[in-house]
Design a protein that fits this description.
The protein is α/β, with parallel strands linked by helices. It has eleven helices and 15 strands. Helix 1 packs antiparallel against helix 2. Bound molecules: glutamine (GLN).
Length: 295
Amino acid sequence: MKKFFAVLLATVMTMSLLTACGSEAAETTTEETEAVETTEAEATETTEATETTETTETTEATEADVAVSDALADGVLTVGTNAEFPPFEYVDDNGEPDGFDIALIKAIGEKLGVTVEVENMEFASLISSIGSKIDVAIAGMTVTEERKNSVDFSNSYYEAVQYVILPEGSDIATADDLKDKAIGVQLGTTGDFIASDIEGASVSQYNKAVDAVNDLINGRVDCVIIDKNPALVFEGKFEGQVVAVDGAQFDFEPEEYAIAMPKGDTALVEQINAALEEIKADGTFDELVKTYIEE
Ligand code: GLN
């Protein structure tokens, strides 16, 4: 990330020098070229780490788009998540973020030869932090057309659907039954967007999904709309108090999870997709599904 700004700064400075004093043009141009070349060399190095079957394609994409792969140039991939979304991300017993997504992005970092640093933040802050506070976000994040206006997504790595968590014995069973209800959601999520479109619904937005479930148990909301796997985790955690119902019963559409990246960083998208492909091909992905989701 840092190097990108250094190059940008060098370029801007060079440009203003060029405008200010013509005689120094030759010197400053050389400097600019050197700065760009260093980045190119590093970018190519990083790409080599990812090379597999798609070698030529990946390398070409990186070379054609030199400046944009700088998210990896400092050897650190800073990853934003919201560790309130088990089994994809949660805080482990040592206070560290863990879960399927965290293990997946660490495996990707390994393929790319970079260290992964995880920043735990609010889900609703992730998108606006990409490209500044964080390089990428992995957070069980659904690909949506609206989000695509702000970020680029990797290939999707998991299919999900919204579920409805109900108190044991609730008679809510169809899309129609959700009208005029008090619905708990996690702020800024697709569950939030769906709930906000339900006629007459009053939506309570929480930063932590578990707080929504607690309010469901306390009777403050009638249901919680949240992704399938977290819903099943909460059903297990609050056994006998809540049930998780498949959103297909409420006509909710399937969703796809992907890693969000700075918009226009095509080299990074290529590199992360290549690493993801490798992880799927060598069995690592299935191992992670077994460890984190199926168990
Ligand atoms: N999949 C949902 C979304 O992208 C929820 C993600 C989450 O809460 N971490 O909005």
